Amino acid sequence: MDFSLTEEQTMFRDLFRDFAQKEVAKVAQHADEREEPPVALLKKAAAQGFLAATVPEDLGGAALDLLSYSLLLEELAKECLSTAVTLAVHNSLVNATLVKYGSAEQQEKWLPILAENLGGFAATEPDAGSDAARVTTRATRQGESYLLSGVKTWVSNAGQAKVLLVLAQTAGGPSIFIIDPAAPGVKIGLREPTTGLRGVAINTVYFDLVEVADADRVGAEGEGLIIAQAANTHLQLALAAAALGLAEGASALGRSFAIERKQFGVSIATKQGLGNYFADCEIEQEALRHLIEYAAWLAGEGKAYAPAALKAKLFGAKIARTAANLMLQVHGGYGFSDEYAISRLYRDAKALDFLGGTPQLGRVVIAQQVFAGAGLTIKP
Fold it and tell me: Could you list the residue range(s) of the whole structural domain that residue 85 is in?
């Protein structure tokens, strides 16, 4: 198997890296301190086509393959995980869902809006997170439309979104609906105060008898969980790439500090104890890169890639935390100060555990795959 990038993928990677270093890096700390998304930066990202990254050309998108898309998120996350997660949620949960399951009319209506504005996916509720089948938000049919009511929590991009995909119960089972956040009956709550990812607009959203046209239901009634699971698989691969980027960014910060910092008359980079930190991170990052490449290859070949994406996501979250923790240790007491960027990466890394499904539930799924056919039932 050839692991080298194509000429086109190399060109894309260089484009993404240039954008991240010139545009993302200079606003990352400010977005974290202000606890608000970098609006001007996201407009520049839209102008580059990043808000339609994997949308086919005939639907107005950039038509990136999944490996190129992973390279985009990796480069963005090196400088700012918030920006990478914002685009991952938008592209993987919203755009990818409409491309795969949306009708021609839905694609024609909503994808041009999403090429210039953010979208969000509202599934989690106060009492329904990993168990999406337990959602209580309900869409009740009224003639040719539905009336939708309920509460959704932890909705990434909600504070800026122009389009929301909402998972709700119907008479036929869980279903997905497209909702305009400006529609009557929709209320966007205050941004949630978070430990990290402070540059992502994460809000609670309230729906009070929101009228939704039948034409804005994605797929048939009862297909909501299948659609949500497919979207989450796409997101898991995206998050793995973002995790790789954060880990690389943390290592780069640690390397620069270790070279410049002097103790006992020499650079601390010469100390074997610290060298072990960098060696371990390098090994783990290389392993994650190949997990991502394999999952993206499977997807490109039209093969089932959900198991590979899940493994990459779980491993990615782990090594991102490890790298951020070890590189903060390299900084010593300075790492505990928000004056240094490593503290932001340290806080952001923890979010990768929760996004795209918890590691506990993910391991249950993998264990089920391990014991498939053995007549055993593995439960959460």
Answer: 7-114
